[in-house]
Every structure is written in C-alpha cells, then in structure tokens.
Amino acid sequence: ADPPLQLGRLRAHGQMLELRTQDLRFTRKETTEFLNEVMRLGLSEEDVEALEAHTEGWVVGLQMAALSLRGHANASEFIRAFSGSHRYVLDYLVEEVLNRQPNKIRTFLLCTSVLERICFQLCDSLLSGDNIEESQQQDEGLSSQQILEYLERSNLFLIPLDDERKWFRYHHLFAELLQVRLLQQEPESKAVLHRRAANWYAQNSYPVEAVNHALEAHDLLLAADMIEDYAMILMGRNQIVATLDWFKSLPPGIAQSHPLLMIYQAYILARRGEFDSVENILIEAEKLIQTRSELNGINEVKDIILGMRGYIANLRGDSETAIQVGLGIPALAAHTYTKSNFLARYQHALAYYSTGDLDTAENIWTDISQRAEESEDVFHAIAAKKELANIWMIRGHLRRAQQCYQEILAWVDQKTQEPASVNGIVKVWETTVLIEQNELEKALTLLEGDLESLLGVWRTSSLGFTYAVLIPLYIARRDFPRARAAVENAFYQLKYFREYPRTVSMVKVGQVNLWLAEGNLAEAEKWAQKDFPQMPVEYSYAQESEHICLARVLVASQRWELVLDLLQNLSREARKGKRFGRLLKLNILQSLALSELNRRKEAMDLLESCLRSAQKEGFMRVFLDEGAPMKALIQRGKKDRRWEDVDLSNYLERLLAAF
C-alpha cells in the first residue's frame, strides 16, 4: 500500500522512486527462467506464454502453478485449466487477501467480480437496492469511488485500463477466485448483479456489454429486447464478432416475435456471405410487421429492411440493384432524424459512389452528416463525413480532405466523453492523406498500437480496410516484411467476413504493388494475366483502382504502346467523372510511357501539368512510387530549366530529396 507521505510533492520534485504492480510482474524472459531454470519444469514456449498470460506475470501465481505442475504428466492440459479456483491459489488469495479486508470491501469485491471492467458509477448501480449486504452499505460510509482508490493504493489486484483511471479490471486469477466465492456464499445474487449491470450498460449506451450481462443473468426476454433496441446501432457499426453467439442463446420463438432481432440476425448472416438465408429472414420479418400493427416503429423497421437489401446488393457488387432499392426509401422532413433512415440512405449513397456518380453520393452523405450532427448521432456523422472526405481526395483536393478529417475529430472530441472509442476509423482514413503527402511518420503514429483497440466500435467493420491502408504505408517505408504481414492479415479478414468490393480491390492492389516494390515482376504479371487475360474494353469506376494497378504492371514490363492506350482510355473516364486525384496518377504514368516512346515534349508538358497540380495540394507519393524512372524524368526537366518559378522549384527540391 502507499505509505502516509506527501507523495505528490515528492513525485513533483523527482525525489521518489515508485515501484508499482506492473513493475513487479515477471517479463516473458523472467517467466521462462523461473519456470524452466529455477523450477526445472521444461515447459514449451507455448506453455510458458499461456501461463504468463493467465497469471499476468504475478510471481505468487506462477509459484502456485509451478508447485501444482510437478504432479502432472500433461503440463499443457493443466495450464489450460489453471484458474483462480485452483486450491493453492484459492487458499493463498483467501488467507492473504480476501479475509484481511473489512466487510464492506469484501462485499464490494464479491459483487463487482461479475464485471469484466469496472468504474465507480457502474459499481454504485450494482451495490444499490435489494438486500445484498444492504446493512453494510449503510453502516460503513465508503463510496465506490473511495473503495476503488483504496484498492488501487493497496495494490489489491486492480488494474487501470486508461490514463484517467476511470475504468479498471481485476487480475484474472483474483476475479476467478471472487466469482467462485460469490457462488458459494450468495448464489442467488449472481443473476441480480448481472441484471443490474445490463441495465446500467444499456442506460449508458454500451449495447454489447448490456446484452452480454442480460444473457449471463439468463434473462432472455431482456436480452432480446436489448438486442432489438440496439439492432440499428450494431448493424451500423458492423458489430459482429462479439455478437455471433447471442442467437444461439435465444429460443427460436423469441427471435420470431422481434422483427429487428430477425433483421439483425440477417445482417450477421450477410457479413458471412449467406445471402439466400438473409432474404428468407427479411421476407419473414416483412410478414411479421404486416400482422403486428401494434408494434412500435414499423416505419423504421421498413427502412431497415430496405437498407439491408441495399447492403446485400452492395456487398455483391450489384450497385444498380442497390440504387433501385434505395429509391424506395421515404424522404425525411426537414430537421427530422431516424437512425434507420441514415442506415438505409448510407447504402443508397454507397451504391451511387460505386458507379462513379460521386455527385449524387455526395449529396446524400452531406444530408446524412448534417442531420446526424444536428441530432448528435456521432456514429452516422462520422460514417458520412469520412466518405465526403474520401470524395474530396478522389477529386484531387488533398488539403480539403485533410481539413475534413480534422473537423470530424474536433467535433467528436466535443460531443463524446470517450472519443477514442469512435474516432479510430477517422484516423485510419486520414492516414491515406498522410501517405499521399509522404508524411509517413505521422501516418505511422496515427496507427500505432493495437489496431482493434484503435478502431474501437469500428473494429469488426473496418479491420480489413485498416490492414489494406497499412500496406501502402509499409511499402512507402520500404518495410516489406510488415507490408507482407498486412497483406496476409487483410486476406484473412476477407476470408471470414464479406467486405465491400472497394475494400477487396484495395487489398488486391496492395498485394500487386508490394510485388512491384519488391521487384517481383513475375508474380505481378501472373496477377495481370489471371485477372485481365484480355485488355479491358470497359472502364467502370468500380475497377478503376485495379486498372491503374494493371497499368503499373505494364509500365514495369515496358509494354509502352499497350499501356499508353490503356492509360488514355482510363484518363478519359476519370476526367469525365471529375476524379482528378485518379487522373493525376494516370497522367504521371502516361508521362513515363510517352518519354519511353520518344515523345519527349508531350511527356514533359504532361509532367509539368502534373507537378503544378500536385504542388498545390501537397501530393508526393504519387511520384515517389514510380521510383528511379520518374526521378530521372523530373531531373531532366529541371536540367532543361523548364520549371524556374520559386514555388514549383521549392516543391521539386523536396520531391527529389524524398526519392
């Protein structure tokens, strides 16, 4: 425990050395040495890793496990089963920790053991009402906040989860012990505590945690009601990993009486690509709402069904069907807001975007973002705004895109208590701008750490996309091992979850660009031959990124006439669609091809146009990715004194220095 000294003053003057719980934990190396050299157990690396993870480096826990292991022939099996209920651990924690605490603290520990993470407001909710040690609550005047502070000061297996020390959790072994003791002493309290936790989480907008606690309480009707209440939010967030098992816990009759529950189940199946089952469920949901006129929010349910059909069509790459479905979505009156309408119209906008109709997509997303901001619907405001920023980038307005991302982050900071839980996806999209600006260290800083933690509520919908963004970042840094790992992780996500075609395209392009950067032209040509056995004769926007990638393969293969014809056709379509960011890439490649075909003046004129456009917006990577041939072409123009004005000269100096 903390000594009764003026710790704040000593800490401020640098006159104190602090050793906390985390400092006393064994590292992986220390754990290995202790188990295999001191205790002579001869464990495998996998077994050491598993035991370290479960004990969290707690030395006494490792000692207890080691003593128990001496009598077991199958070490791996024992380690898998090792928990806080093991007799050695149980005896130690009961005698040395639990029994030494005042009644109030023991009650607090037992009641809050049902929680995976803890804050004082949640603890207050658990410990209020009914008769769970209610007399002790009244006799001893410690608040939950004071108890948490006491537990942390006393190093009683309480681990902070954030820098503000708002959220905590118990050490795994300690939590398991407490749960065993709770069942032994007050088995009837477990369901009550889980139900209270469910209600607190529901009231404070933590849908996944709320449903999980309702299921732990075996209150299936409460769980079903909560799933239905939050279905639109969970579908919008693409929350699927944490919720796959929910429907296995609910009897079929419950699901069939809750239309939103049916739709959410359909959504989960859609993410897994089971489209035929999805349509059958949607048909049954439509039949249910036709016969249940007393159900609340029928119009919202109808919107969601339309949104689901648009979602399925978009996942399949069938933009025309998604557009036709979206035309049936009712228009909202001014200053009205429904999440179901936002969800459905987002899919409608995405369908237009996928056909290259960026203007219509922009209009819909702008309307959604404005209404979402008015209603402080943070999720849909982010979803729409990031798409608008991406459109700016495609149109070549890099600075406007970055400004848009910064505006989103600032707005989220103002409107949410925990911005880190929702703003991770904005940082991922902003990374695409930083890569183009060659601000690679800034980009890496945005995405450092655990990606799932960074993404927060977006982790299941955007993890594959995030890995796709990491590929060009690592390529630009010449960190090919990490780029290969990002490709592998991205394809892993595509294997298990159905993604939008644009994400699939990003991953494919990332893989081919990695081969080109590594000098593995043979693999890049195999891809080109497989995906494009004949040169394209149609130039759809949906395949534009892959067509540009094909052009890069042809440039690397020095097939100049063929690539020039492809690039001219692609440029015509990009110019027609006002996609000037894409046009910049195409024209840069064209300048290389024209130069190699001895059409030098055309090449240099086109390159000058590209450089002036890029300089205004801060594009860098689009030139750097083409390597030595592009550097040589720029140097030739500079030697010929083509670019004498100060602004362009300064830009060229920075650009050439970055090759």
Condensed summary:
With 659 residues, the protein is mostly helical. It is built from 39 helices and two strands.
Helicity level, as a percent range? over 70%
The dominant shape is globular
Give the helix/strand class: mainly alpha
Beta-sheet strand percentage? under 5%
Report the mean per-residue pLDDT as an integer: 85
Outline the biggest β-sheet: 2 strands, antiparallel
Spatially, the strands of the biggest sheet line up as 1-2
Pick out the low-confidence regions: 133-139
User: Cα-atom Rg, whole angstroms?
Assistant: 29 Å
- Distinct helical segment count: 39
Separation, N- and C-terminal Cα atoms: 56 Å
Number of DSSP strand runs: 2
Polypeptide structure, described:
There is one protein chain. The protein has 659 residues and is mainly α. 71% of the residues lie in helices and 1% in strands. The chain contains 39 helices and 2 strands. Strands 1-2 form a two-stranded antiparallel ribbon. A hairpin with a 7-residue loop joins β1 and β2 (168-170). α22 packs antiparallel against α23 and α29 (459-476) runs antiparallel to α30. The protein is globular and about 90 Å long.
Helices, strands, pairings?
Elements: H1 7-12, H2 21-24, H3 28-38, H4 45-55, H5 59-69, H6 75-81, H7 87-96, H8 103-112, H9 120-126, H10 134-139, H11 144-153, E1 158-160, E2 168-170, H12 172-185, H13 189-203, H14 207-216, H15 220-236, H16 246-249, H17 252-255, H18 259-271, H19 275-291, H20 298-316, H21 319-326, H22 339-355, H23 358-374, H24 378-394, H25 398-415, H26 424-436, H27 440-446, H28 451-455, H29 459-476, H30 480-496, H31 501-518, H32 521-531, H33 544-556, H34 560-576, H35 580-596, H36 600-617, H37 621-624, H38 627-639, H39 646-658
Antiparallel strand pairs: 1-2
